[in-house]
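Tip: read the tokens left to right.
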């Protein structure tokens, strides 16, 4: 009996020390060796307690599919030219690629499609005389796969951008088929964060069509193969940003897919203004070398999301795979541009369908009110147990304190996020703990009324109450599991807190309190029990 009591007491105390250690950083700032060897993370606060941004983003996968169809169209065009296939007509109609060839080249075309474009299928086919016309579209399975991958890629891209932006403990998760939930606790500049997250960051290098620039200015007619984009410029003295139209070739000479790094530096050519230094992969370096070598004296427009940031003249071949993007940036603009280029482009544009900003003052008020509620609940529970169950009530109060240390320590150890519903879960856990002790104490009272000894009454009370307590905790745990599986946001926070609390309460209320009673019986051997 004694050995069993010692073992159980040591077990309770060991858990108490472990969880208390995880709570230390919330009250004391660890330094030196203490910080090196002890846990240093505080309990994470959710958006409703810390303040910040709550965003729900929807991906425009239709735009992504248009871009994919464009790439297939250009690739098919190059492939047909390479294979000597003469097309009478080749155009893109929405999500379809329409091809017209001589009927005797049908087999050659189908061989090309089967070998290089297995993800394209024939949606319609018609023959008029010796002309064969077919409409090609993406295979449904491939479309679904691309959309699924796009969401996963977007999650990773947004996560990389936010990590480099410096937000601690963000929440980034998929919701539904094409929606992304983003929660950014503690963000002080919501507009900048929103712009950073939503930018598609499609970087392209296009030649400026200076030969037709004068003609375009006079007639306002865009030559075939060209497009008009807006070029950003900022007045250094006033800081005002303006745009002017610029005529560029539609065809991209290369894209940002070949970038390996992007850094902000202070440039010498722009009067000490921030610029973005970019570095290409080996393939990108080779291609950039070819482009600059073949277009010396021409202007190369650097285009990001269909906006020209700069269009410098190519004075000489640029080897080595390095270049600079200049555009009268502020330091924040240059830093954000470098972030999105390093983190990669979003596979499709995203639109914000829900944007909630919670101020830090509101978060602090929530914490204060939640803590007040928890303290008030604890005080009322302590007083009730002492009043109704006398000295035995103090055992329940000690167990309640141990329960809270376990619960908060587990939160810190698991790096779970504390939310306002989570605080409600803590208060409810207190109530469940009290209810457990009430069941045990009432059974002990019944045993004492039957004339049993104190030891027999305590053992009998715990034995008879155990089945009811276990059933109640398991059914509640199942409910919290369902809440977690099908709930969102605050409901999940409540479910996590309550489920941890239930498991801990089952241990402390039954096992822990029994240790205290057994110790009292062993040490003092009381003939009566104040209960």
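Filled-in amino acids:
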């Amino acid at each position: 009996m004694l050995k069993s009591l010692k073992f159980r007491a040591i077990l309770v105390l060991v858990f108490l020390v472990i969880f208390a250690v995880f709570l230390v950083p919330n009250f004391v700032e660890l330094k030196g060796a203490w910080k090196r060897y002890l846990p240093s993370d505080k309990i994470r606060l959710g958006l409703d307690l810390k303040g910040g941004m709550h965003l729900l983003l929807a991906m425009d996968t239709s735009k992504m599919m248009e871009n994919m169809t464009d790439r297939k169209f250009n690739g098919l065009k190059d492939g047909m030219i390479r294979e000597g296939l003469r097309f009478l007509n080749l155009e893109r109609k929405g999500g379809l690629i329409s091809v017209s060839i001589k009927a005797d080249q049908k087999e050659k075309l189908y061989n090309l499609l089967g070998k290089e474009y297995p993800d394209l299928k024939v949606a319609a086919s018609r023959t008029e005389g010796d002309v064969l016309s077919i409409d090609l579209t993406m295979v449904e399975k491939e479309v679904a796969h691309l959309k699924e991958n796009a969401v996963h890629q977007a999650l990773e891209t947004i996560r990389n951008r936010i990590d480099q932006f410096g937000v601690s403990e963000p929440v980034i998760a998929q919701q539904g088929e094409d929606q992304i939930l983003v929660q950014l606790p503690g963000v002080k500049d919501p507009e900048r964060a929103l712009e950073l997250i939503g930018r598609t960051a499609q970087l392209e290098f296009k030649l400026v069509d200076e030969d037709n620039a004068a003609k375009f200015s006079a007639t306002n007619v865009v030559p075939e193969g060209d497009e008009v984009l807006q070029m950003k410029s900022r007045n250094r003295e006033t800081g005002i940003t303006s745009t002017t139209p610029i005529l560029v070739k539609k065809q991209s000479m290369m894209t940002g897919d070949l970038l390996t790094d992007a850094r902000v530096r202070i440039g010498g050519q722009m009067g000490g203004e921030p610029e973005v230094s970019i570095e290409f992969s080996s393939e990108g370096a080779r291609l950039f070398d070819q482009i600059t070598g073949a277009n010396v004296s021409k202007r190369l427009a650097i285009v990001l999301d269909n906006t020209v940031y700069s269009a410098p003249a190519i004075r000489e071949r640029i080897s080595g795979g390095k270049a600079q993007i200049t555009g009268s940036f502020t330091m924040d603009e240059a830093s954000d541009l470098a972030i999105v280029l390093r983190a990669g482009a979003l596979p499709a544009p995203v639109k914000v369908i829900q944007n909630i900003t919670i101020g830090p003052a509101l978060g602090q008020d929530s914490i204060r009110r939640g803590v007040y509620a928890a303290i008030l609940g604890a005080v009322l529970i302590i007083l009730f147990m002492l009043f109704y169950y006398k000295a035995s009530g103090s055992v329940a109060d000690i167990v309640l304190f141990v329960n809270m240390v376990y619960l908060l320590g587990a939160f810190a150890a698991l790096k779970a996020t504390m939310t306002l519903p989570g605080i409600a879960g803590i208060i409810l856990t207190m109530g469940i703990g009290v209810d457990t002790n009430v069941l045990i104490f009432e059974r002990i009272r019944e045993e004492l009324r039957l004339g049993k000894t104190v030891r027999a009454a305590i053992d009998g009370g715990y034995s008879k109450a155990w089945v009811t307590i276990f059933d109640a905790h398991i059914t509640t745990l199942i409910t919290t599991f369902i809440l977690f599986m099908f709930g969102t946001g605050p409901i999940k926070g409540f479910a996590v807190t309550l489920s941890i609390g239930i498991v801990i309460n089952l241990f402390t209320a039954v096992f822990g309190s029994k240790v205290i009673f057994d110790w009292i019986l062993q040490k003092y051997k009381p003939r009566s029990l104040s209960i």
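The first strand starts at residue 44 and ends at 45. The two ends are 24 Å apart (CA to CA).
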